[in-house]
Amino acid sequence: MIISKNPYTGEEISKFKEFTKKDIETALNNADNRFQSWKTTGFTERAKLMQELAKELKKNSKEYATDISLEMGKPISQAIAEIEKCAWVCEYYAENAEKQLANQIIKTDASESYVSFEPLGIILAIMPWNYPFWQVFRFAAPALMAGNIAVLKHASNVMKSAENIQKAFERAGFPKDCFQSLVIGSDKVEDIIRDPRVKAATLTGSNPAGSAVASVAGEEIKKTVLELGGSNALVVFEDADLEETIKTCVMARFQNTGQSCIAGKRLLLHKNIADDFLEEFTKQVRELKAGDPMDEESFIGVLAREDLAEDIDEQVQKSVNMGAKIILGGNRDAAYYEPTILLNVKPGMPVFDEETFGPVIGVTTFKDEKEAVNLVNLSKFGLGVSIFTNNMDFAKGLIPQFEDGAVFINDLVKSDPRLPFGGTKVSGYGRELSEHGIREFVNRKTVYIK
To answer: Are residues 442 and 359 in the same domain?
Structure first.
């Protein structure tokens, strides 16, 4: 039995009976049968259904968002925004998939030669709890528009959201078994990846989980896309617009109670503006309203589980023992962790080296651009970096020096259906979203006609 608990109250929300081997076999068989017909549908039909799905998400956003907030503690206003973003990605691919997957004509010695983009079949998605809908939809919308079938293994603490996602597809009119949620634990994943009907896998989650999935898929010679952890830097140069930069940095670190792979987790400040920046930054963080996730005024909720709050507290305390100084927060109450700022953070400390998945930010100062770039690239992660400066020529000159998958200038790192999303180093490989994402799970078939 898989049990969902409300991390704010500790109350049990719902129970789900885990799939048996027979249930899994039935689900995969149904998915495989559905693929045989779904792959022959035209883009017009798929797009119509995807637009209906967008309407369904908008119409019932509060219903779906409420279960997100109850299951993993996301403030309700942010949960509603998450559902609305899912509607956007559905609309984007409904409008763009056909041209993104149109035959690519290439002139050769042949009378005709081109690349076609054809669906692979069943794709397994292994998804995390922190954005229970968005992480799924940014995979599912392009995958289904490309003609694939999706099966989902969601995080155990958000099985109600997983059920709701399947419900949304069915309410929108998608043929049965185009999208299925599998009620399973992690111990069932390996066998599913190895099943010959499953053609590829995508995972968003921790580095150990990504390594395990990639290892099994590699043995089976199956394609994977991995979106793993991050420790994004927020780099503030001396000439930055401090008022706007501070607002952006507060949002970058503390939205979703800091539980985001692309959150700004390391604050790198030029030494000449560090004091002024921190005075106002600390003031704004202190004023963030924490409380019941179901309260529309709450900006900070609880972490999704109490053990996650314990983990981040341990990272903070270890860093303090190594010389970091807490200037705000640092206290835990069950699954709640106070928004926390640490000064004097250096490489080697957990809050610099590791991913901090909660409302904690470490501050490090630098003296020049060379030191700033080195501090950014010291991380084993490579998801994204934000730099703040009013000199665009200077900023553009820095872009090639960063090793990350994304560089955002004067804004927080965020995913956008129109742009590819993914990382380097231990942050994973492959890309989601845009035309790059929809082409990850297709057969790029070369056609040569003499």
So the answer is: no
- Residue span of the structural domain in which 306 resides: 232-417
pLDDT of residue 331: 98
Give the active site residue among 52, 56, 91, 227: 227
The predicted-structure confidence for 295-332, as pLDDT tens digits, reads as follows: 999 999 999 999 999 999 999 999 999 999 999 999 99
- In the residue annotation, 261 being an active-site residue is answered as yes
One domain for residues 399 and 316: yes
pLDDT at 267: 98
On average, the pLDDT of the chain sits at: 98
Q: Is residue 242 part of a domain?
A: yes
Q: What is the 3-state secondary structure (H, E, C) of the chain?
A: CEEEECCCCCCEEEEECCCCHHHHHHHHHHHHHHHHHHCCCCHHHHHHHHHHHHHHHHHCHHHHHHHHHHHHCCCHHHHHHHHHHHHHHHHHHHHHHHHHCCCEECCCCCCEEEEEEEECCEEEEECCCCCCCHHHHHHHHHHHHCCCEEEEECCHHHHHHHHHHHHHHHHCCCCCCCEEECCCCHHHHHHHHHCCCEEEEEEECCHHHHHHHHHHHHHCCCEEEEECCCCEEEEECCCCCHHHHHHHHHHHHHHHHHCCCCCEEEEEEECCCHHHHHHHHHHHHHCCCECCCCCCCCCECCCCCHHHHHHHHHHHHHHHHCCCEEEECCCEECCEECCEEEECCCCCCHHHHCCCCCCEEEEEEECCHHHHHHHHHCCCEECCEEEECCCHHHHHHHHHHCCCCCEEECCCCCCCCCCCECCEECCEECCECHHHHHCCCEEEEEEEEC
**86, 178, 249, 261: the active-site residue:** 261
Number of domains composing the chain = 2
86 in catalytic set: no
* pTM, 2 dp: 0.97
